[in-house]
Predict the 3D structure of the following.
Amino acid sequence: MGEFDLIKRFFTRDPALTPQPATVALGIGDDCAVLSPTPGAQWLISTDMLVEGRHFLSTVAPDRLGHKALAVNLSDLAACGATPRAFTLALALPRADELFLEGFARGLFALADAHGIALVGGDTTAGPLNICITVMGEAPAGAALLRSGAQPGDDLYVSGTLGDARLALEAFRGTVQLSGEDFETARRAMEQPQPRVALGQALRGVATSAIDVSDGFAGDLGHVLKRSKLGATVQADALPRGPALLKQPLALQRLCTLAGGDDYELIFSAPASAREAVQSASAASGTPVTRVGQLDAEPGLRLIDAQGQVLPELPAGFDHFKASA
Ligand code: ADP
Ligand code: MG
């Protein structure tokens, strides 16, 4: 199978069966895709690359990989409150493995269709497995949620639950033992994250800042603090966790929620006067949100326990957990 057969067979879809957003004037097949902006909107564009061994394990099922490659990109649009419109796909493949491509495309397009986003172009080459997606979305001019907008005194929230992806990674590494059911839950969180696109859009005009959690809660919150020139106080044990993680020792729970990564939940800030509006956004998008702390004028991230005692430092790594568990 040649390059063009491969693109046609796996990545070009029948326009009659897959309606495209009105913004897509021309998709795959020419030298460029042509997109028509919605009047009054701005484009929001983000790129994420997934490299085998670094961002995913070779054991992942191809359909879950297709899902995740797009999900991590949609999560960036979600963090900015954008409406997804189109994406491109640059693929390096060791060989044209039909079984792999069929599964990959299935997972990719299932998520694309769920969000009404069209594949409009890309590039295909032989090489070590590498997946690079660029997503394009729109938001009303000036309405995008940014990292820089948080204000002192704002409430701090996080969506969904944190830490399951890291828990799965530790299970794969053999550092924790999970029941079959807990392992499946954690593995699904790692391999099939659900980008919080509806929540991000519902938070336009409500949240003052937002970011998605890709590298871990503490690190990603740190980006907001830096860009907003603020600090934060966070109740470490108020960070939302699922049932599998709640069964683990507290030190491991803290490690996974604070420093886990790969969560693709949203951290966002909003003034206390917007608490009802935040609840409405949560309900409208069907996404649970938890208030976990507040923004302070004083720089730095302060973690406190349920008694209000300041925790000495962030969990540094798994050995640290072992020593203190
Ligand atoms: P060019 O050489 O002009 O860059 P290519 O031969 O690389 O064009 O690609 C032909 C068409 O197929 C282009 O419209 C390109 O965007 C599209 N394409 C290539 N690879 C992919 C892919 N993996 N997914 C979607 N579209 C692709
Ligand atoms: Mg090309």
User: Anything to note?
Assistant: The CA atoms of residues 92 and 125 lie 5 Å apart. DSSP finds eleven helices and twelve strands in the chain. The longest strand covers residues 41-51. Residues 147-304 form a domain with the Phosphoribosyl-aminoimidazole Synthetase; Chain A, domain 2 fold (CATH 3.90.650.10).
